[in-house]
């Protein structure tokens, strides 16, 4: 019985020391990660710049009532200060604001190409949020994503501007009326389409028809 108590005491002591070693190692690793992130914070703070040119006047006019877009841009341009947690909270806010961009898109821009670009932008911001919330932050990936978010925001504005430019291209005089008239005829009698396709073009001037014997 005496030996049994001694064995139990030894096992308990070994377990206790093992737990203390694990706890000490965990504390050391946490301190190491915190020290590393302090240096990464300086890099993030210096590079947290979203270089996005303002939209063209015509785009700005079309989106002035799009509150979600205004709120997203305000959030994007406000740089956090202080701790790493401030940047983490900022990335979380950007995820929320980019998610809301899908709401109330102006009817002129509510097209697949714009919704697609919003989706890509949202994905980039969510990736930024994921990486900046890791215990040890991969600073190069975060730096790259900051640039990618700025790029996708600019691309979205360029897409909207392109849609305006295309809509303003003037058709040749009378072309629109002619196309409408043709569409009306085709809708009234679909057989005319087949007849139009099978009409033989007139012979060129100066070329005689050859009569076969």
Question: Can you characterise this structure?
Answer:
This protein is mostly helical and 213 residues long. The chain contains eight helices and no strands. It has helices at residues 2-47, 57-63, 67-77, 84-100, 112-132, 139-167, 175-188, 191-198. The chain starts with a helix and ends in a 15-residue tail after the last helix.
Spatial separation of the terminal alpha carbons: 130 Å
Estimate what percentage of residues fall within beta strands.
Answer: under 5%
Number of helices: 8
| SSE arrangement, N to C | HHHHHHHH
Helical residues, percent: over 70%
Shape: elongated
Largest sheet properties: none
Structural class estimated from helices and strands: mainly alpha
Question: How many β-strand stretches?
Answer: 0
Summed over residues and divided by their number, the pLDDT gives a mean of: 81
Radius of gyration: 33 Å
- Uncertain stretches of 5 or more adjacent residues: 193-200, 204-213
Question: Which helices and strands occur, and which strands form pairs?
Answer:
Elements: H1 2-47, H2 57-63, H3 67-77, H4 84-100, H5 112-132, H6 139-167, H7 175-188, H8 191-198
Helix pairs in contact: 1-6, 3-4, 4-5, 5-6
């Amino acid at each position: 019985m005496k030996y049994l108590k001694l064995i139990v005491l030894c096992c308990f002591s070994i377990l206790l020391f093992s737990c203390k070693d694990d706890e000490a190692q965990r504390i050391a690793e946490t301190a190491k990660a915190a020290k590393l992130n302090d240096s990464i914070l300086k890099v993030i703070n210096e590079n947290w710049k979203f270089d996005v040119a303002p939209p063209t006047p015509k785009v700005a006019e079309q989106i002035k009532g799009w509150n979600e877009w205004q709120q997203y841009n305000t959030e994007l341009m406000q740089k956090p200060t202080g701790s790493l947690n401030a940047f983490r909270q900022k990335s979380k806010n950007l995820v929320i604001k980019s998610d809301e961009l899908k709401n109330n898109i102006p009817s002129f821009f509510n097209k697949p190409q714009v919704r697609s670009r919003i989706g890509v932008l949202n994905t980039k911001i969510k990736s930024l949020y994921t990486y900046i919330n890791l215990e040890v932050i991969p600073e190069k990936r975060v730096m790259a994503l900051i640039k990618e978010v700025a790029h996708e925001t600019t691309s979205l504005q360029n897409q909207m501007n392109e849609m305006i430019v295309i809509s303003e291209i003037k058709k040749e005089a009378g072309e629109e009326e002619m196309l409408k008239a043709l569409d009306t005829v085709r809708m009234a009698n679909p057989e005319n389409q087949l007849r139009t396709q099978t009409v033989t073009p007139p012979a060129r001037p100066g070329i005689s028809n050859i009569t076969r014997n």
